[in-house]
């Protein structure tokens, strides 16, 4: 969508993405972003700002993150009163959209500069609460240290998930896991389906290596990079930003190795950085939705090839359509289009054949999870 004049069909596609985001992702979670995305969908001048990105990168969250980053730089602008991340206390009203529209269009070149050079990189720390039970199940099976490889790692904060503390509220019972005195504490409401069994959570998972792969890894020791990561967090959810800051500070004690590269072509060379004697746990969290359908298939093929060389598990916390549907078809009722939830699953391979296990579904930011596996 870049480099040439936009066609009406291009504008229509961007508007569809904005409208879908407002209705299926922001609704019920972010009144501010639901309002802004819905209004942007009906405003071609604002929607076209997203054309500075291309393909799957032209996601509504990128438009909103770019605006958030510019407002961070101008915190006294009247628009900031609608941004709790900047101390704003006002809810959405009749002035919100006109102020936003004026703000981004007056800074259109700066908006396009960010949108064309940045990617949506929401290092959502709370998703570790969804991933951790699956990791604990793999660790219990191998009975020894594992090597972690996160694909689409952003700043790699989830590579420290074994150091986080977990509290799952299941009815009147609280289930806990991870170190008792963890710097990062996560809470998740849990429902266990009939005939399902939630795994026993250890206080410690032995991790022998932590490697992250991302096309543009974020260095959280760089304040400007950390500011972009914060800008990708939805502005009316300041608790997520505080948690991001806490996890970034904790990462200074447990530093992962972050590799810049492609999720498919650089997967094998990045996996080789994890010692061969360690069982390899590859995991993704809302990363595959940013790959095309063909690239997702290539990613699965690359995992299969790796699994032929060493013990490997893939833990996916993704939209069903972009992940488990490739290895566990027939569960369309779990699609994001129907549920507005991500699914959790673990896949291993036997002689090249995937062995998928559907484990849970959860809200996109991991406030709630329903456990499905026995």
Helix content: 25-40%
Report the β-strand fraction as a percent range: 15-25%
CATH topology of the largest domain: Rossmann fold
What does the largest sheet look like?
11 strands, mixed
Residue windows where pLDDT falls under 50 for at least 5 positions: 1-5
Order of helices and strands: HHHHHHHEEEEEHHEHEHEHEEE
Structural class: alpha/beta
Average pLDDT reading? 93
What is the top-level CATH class of the largest domain? Alpha Beta
Q: Any idea how many domains? A: 2
Put simply, the count of helices is: 12
Per DSSP E runs of 2 or more residues, the count of β-strands stands at 11
The CATH architecture name of the largest domain reads 3-Layer(aba) Sandwich
Q: What is the alpha-carbon Rg in Å?
A: 20 Å
Largest beta sheet: what is the strand line-up? 3-2-4-11-10-9-8-7-1-5-6
Apparent shape: globular
- End-to-end distance, in Å? 46 Å
Write a concise synopsis of the structure shown.
With 374 residues, the chain is of the alpha/beta class.
